[in-house]
């Protein structure tokens, strides 16, 4: 049995699970928080956007490393 293709892509596929779950948890927590405290929406959304950007950066770094290696 011979494996053809890049094994890096399998690693990238597994590495995307973490950021995907992270983004889902960030937005689900924001929705729950806004439902409980609607007046705190502005403060929560700024933290959500920062968390989303940092979490998404992990996926971008993973794909860059998958193609570089």
TrEMBL record:
Protein name, per record: ATP synthase subunit c
Keywords annotated in UniProt: ATP synthesis, Cell membrane, CF(0), Hydrogen ion transport, Ion transport, Lipid-binding, Membrane, Transmembrane, Transmembrane helix, Transport
GO annotations of cellular component type: plasma membrane; proton-transporting ATP synthase complex; proton-transporting two-sector ATPase complex, proton-transporting domain
Pfam families for this protein: ATP-synt_C (PF00137)
Chief place of localization: membrane
Coiled coil: none
Compartment(s): Cell membrane; Membrane
HAMAP family: ATP_synth_c_bact
Bilayer disposition of the protein: Multi-pass membrane protein
PROSITE patterns: ATPASE_C (PS00605)
UniProt cross-references to InterPro entries, sorted A to Z: ATP_synth_F0_csu, ATP_synth_F0_csu_DDCD_BS, ATP_synth_F0_csu_sf, ATPase_proteolipid_c-like_dom, F/V-ATP_Csub_sf
Listed transmembrane segments: 12-35, 47-68
Function: F(1)F(0) ATP synthase produces ATP from ADP in the presence of a proton or sodium gradient. F-type ATPases consist of two structural domains, F(1) containing the extramembraneous catalytic core and F(0) containing the membrane proton channel, linked together by a central stalk and a peripheral stalk. During catalysis, ATP synthesis in the catalytic domain of F(1) is coupled via a rotary mechanism of the central stalk subunits to proton translocation.
Site (Reversibly protonated during proton transport): 56
Species for this entry: Propioniferax innocua
Lineage of origin: Bacteria, Bacillati, Actinomycetota, Actinomycetes, Propionibacteriales
Record family assignment: Belongs to the ATPase C chain family.
Domain V-ATPase proteolipid subunit C-like: 11-68
Entry's Gene Ontology molecular function annotations: lipid binding; proton-transporting ATP synthase activity, rotational mechanism
